[in-house]
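STRUCTURE:
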């Protein structure tokens, strides 16, 4: 009766969804996961049964973040529309059994296939690829035990037609690269550990019998990202050896992202010299040791560059302007620029300059004028201090970049010069950042009239003006120049952190409140803001930034206690779209009140808490997991005992794994000696996107992979 009354009410109001045109309905249906369309929605009525199978909805199937999909749904999906699928993305579907991949063979017309993060054996890969004769784009993982000799001739025939390959290596191997004789785009991710689980040192030498002749003659894009470790460096050199002999004539993007020191060798020098003579690039990223102290940039030629990364290089602003931006000439094609950790990039020279000295505003102005179409800019991990010259503050100059979608800045760069000079740090900030007495966490108070507070303190500040001018910004990172996470990649947890920059001491609640002007903000990272006293600005963000999906907060305010807990809980009550939350703060108390507030985030999928000497309440965590049905990742690295952590982890898995196939739970003492062994079992999707802290703005060229 209720249904009938609702239908009659709809008819009386003249509103009926089925009366919309097919074009409008197709647009609406495009926001529904394909599994729901095919397995549920199309069974509701005849019209939707037809529309749900429209080619525009079945051409591309994205399962990469459909955490509710299971093996049975995939099997049924492939049965129903397998022949209609041309692009299939299953990246990061770590929870699906290996046998699920067998059903991909039903997709006879596949052109693009992404299986990154899925465990596929050599034999299964061979069987699957043998049936996909139209495949042109492939992404796979190469795990220990992979054997290229098991690939059939039909499989190799398919690989010979593949023009785009993304390969993530967990073992020293060429993978399927030697079989791909028509490669135009090659993306390599090196995730090989230096030690096996048994503690044996691994070698970068490839397996006996593997071909060492990759085919690069048609290559246009070469990208390699290395995780820390010497084995990754040894293996990537083997991939580069062929390039050094003969550089592809059509190469227009050459990118190598390597942490730490990656020394240049004779072979790599020959490769770079050959590139300088024979190619014109549109995208460039090199290890810092290959650029520092060399005249390489002076000889490389560029066509219409869209991406540059000089992360961690000692490149000076003078060289940047003269050799890269051609003396300030037009570079409207450049859309993404990564200068993270490039401490001298805004100074005319680096020889006698200290990292904390003021920047040369004319260099930044030349950059802004020449690269006026920048959409992604990363200036983090450096001290960019503006001078007292009127109108030349870094924030004022960046406000001219009206097309920015993502921006990363160091905390010390956003402070007003007068404020940082005249205003001494408030008393709480005089507490050393590396020490703190464990205190009882109570409900903090903060000003209720947030609008008046913001108007009084920052409407005239340069950072307030910058936020007001970048109305369409989607990603913002404000990170302390000396901040380092307590969870590095392959090392024990860091017990102490460096103190914040002196210029950053005045940055706090009022600056955070300015961020609330970003109506379309989707991702926010705040790390090492020392003058956070109450966190009142967070509430403003929660109220105004209704599109916020990712939030990462680290080391805000005093290190001895969590001064912003009350404001954070108020903020979370308004974050209905929040999907990822990462908190890193010593002495964080993950108790009943916090999880009750977090339960308001109805869309939350992933939670990560990193806290030295932090505590948690097991009952509160279990209640939170029961209330928030979308949560599929819970990572907590706290100060609790190993027994408490293990018991809670087992309870969560036992209670919720059956209903949530993608559930991944890791609860472990932060300072335990076996932390690195635990981390290696975390799915790469979660580890790379949320668990490990890093700056992600302009980390890779835009649209590098689909």
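SEQUENCE:
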């Amino acid at each position: 009766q209720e249904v009938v009354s609702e239908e009659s009410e709809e008819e009386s109001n003249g509103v009926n969804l089925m009366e919309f045109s097919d074009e409008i309905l197709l647009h609406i249906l495009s926001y529904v996961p394909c599994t729901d369309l095919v397995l549920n929605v199309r069974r509701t009525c005849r019209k939707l049964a037809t529309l749900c199978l429209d080619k525009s909805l079945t051409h591309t199937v994205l399962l990469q973040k459909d955490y509710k999909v299971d093996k049975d749904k995939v099997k049924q999906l492939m049965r129903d529309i397998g022949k209609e699928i041309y692009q299939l993305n299953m990246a990061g579907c770590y929870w699906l059994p290996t046998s699920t991949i067998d059903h991909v063979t039903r997709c006879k017309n596949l052109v693009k296939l992404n299986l990154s993060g899925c465990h596929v054996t050599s034999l299964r890969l061979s069987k699957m690829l043998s049936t996909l004769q139209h495949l042109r784009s492939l992404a796979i993982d190469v795990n220990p035990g992979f054997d290229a000799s098991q690939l059939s001739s039909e499989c190799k025939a398919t690989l010979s037609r593949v023009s785009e390959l993304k390969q993530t290596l967990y073992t020293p191997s060429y993978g399927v690269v030697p079989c791909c004789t028509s490669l135009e785009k090659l993306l390599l991710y090196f995730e090989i550990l230096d030690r096996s689980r048994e503690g044996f040192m691994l070698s970068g030498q490839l397996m006996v019998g593997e071909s060492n002749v990759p085919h690069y003659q048609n290559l246009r894009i070469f990208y390699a990202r290395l995780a820390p470790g010497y084995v990754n460096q040894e293996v990537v050199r083997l991939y580069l050896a062929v390039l050094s002999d003969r550089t592809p004539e059509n190469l227009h993007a050459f990118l190598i992202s390597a942490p730490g020191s990656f020394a240049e060798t004779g072979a790599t020098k020959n490769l770079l010299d050959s590139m300088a003579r024979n190619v014109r690039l549109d995208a460039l990223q090199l290890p810092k040791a290959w650029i520092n102290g060399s005249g390489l940039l002076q000889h490389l030629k560029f066509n219409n560059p869209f991406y540059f990364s000089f992360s961690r290089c000692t490149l000076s602003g003078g060289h940047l302007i003269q050799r890269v931006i051609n003396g300030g000439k037009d570079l409207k094609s450049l859309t993404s620029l990564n200068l993270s950790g490039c401490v001298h990039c805004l100074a005319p020279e680096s020889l006698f300059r200290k990292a904390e000295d003021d920047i040369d505003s004319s260099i930044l102005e030349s950059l802004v004028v020449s690269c006026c179409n920048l959409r992604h800019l990363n200036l983090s991990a450096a001290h960019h201090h503006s001078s007292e010259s009127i109108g030349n503050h870094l924030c004022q100059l960046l406000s001219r970049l009206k097309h920015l979608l993502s921006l990363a800045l160091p905390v010390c760069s956003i402070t007003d010069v007068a404020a940082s000079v005249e205003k001494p740090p408030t008393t709480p900030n005089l507490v050393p950042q590396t020490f703190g007495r464990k205190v009882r966490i109570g409900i903090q108070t903060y000003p209720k009239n947030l609008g008046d507070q913001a108007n009084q303190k920052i409407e005239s500040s340069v950072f307030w003006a910058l936020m007001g001018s970048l109305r369409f910004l989607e990603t913002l990172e404000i990170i302390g120049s000396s901040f380092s996470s307590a969870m590095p990649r392959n090392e024990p947890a860091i017990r102490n952190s460096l103190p914040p920059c002196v210029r950053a001491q005045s940055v706090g609640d009022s600056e955070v409140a300015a961020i609330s002007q970003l109506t379309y903000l989707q991702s926010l990272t705040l790390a090492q803001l020392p003058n956070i006293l109450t966190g009142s600005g967070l509430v403003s963000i929660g109220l105004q930034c209704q599109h916020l999906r990712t939030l990462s907060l680290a080391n805000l305010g005093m290190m001895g206690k969590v001064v912003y807990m009350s404001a954070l809980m108020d903020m979370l009550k308004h974050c209905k779209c929040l999907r990822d939350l990462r908190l890193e703060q010593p002495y964080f108390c993950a108790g009943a009140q916090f999880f009750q507030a977090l339960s308001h985030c109805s869309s939350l999928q992933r939670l990560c808490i990193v806290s030295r000497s932090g505590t948690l309440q097991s009952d509160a965590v279990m209640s939170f997991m029961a209330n928030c049905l979308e949560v599929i990742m819970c990572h907590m690295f706290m100060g609790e005992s190993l027994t408490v952590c293990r018991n809670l982890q087992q309870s969560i898995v036992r209670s919720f794994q059956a209903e949530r196939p993608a559930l991944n739970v890791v609860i472990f003492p932060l300072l335990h000696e076996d932390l690195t062994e635990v981390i290696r079992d975390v799915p790469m999707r979660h580890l790379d996107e949320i668990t490990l802290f890093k700056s992600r703005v302009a980390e890779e060229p835009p649209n590098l992979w689909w």
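REMARK: The first strand starts at residue 60 and ends at 62.
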